[in-house]
Amino acid sequence: MRLTLFQRDHCHLCDMAYEVLVAAGVPDFEPVWIDGLAAQEARYGLRIPVLRREDNGDELDWPFDAAAVSAFLGR
Question: Distance of CA 47 to CAs 2, 8, 29, 65, 74, Å?
Answer without folding.
Answer: 20, 11, 18, 15, 22
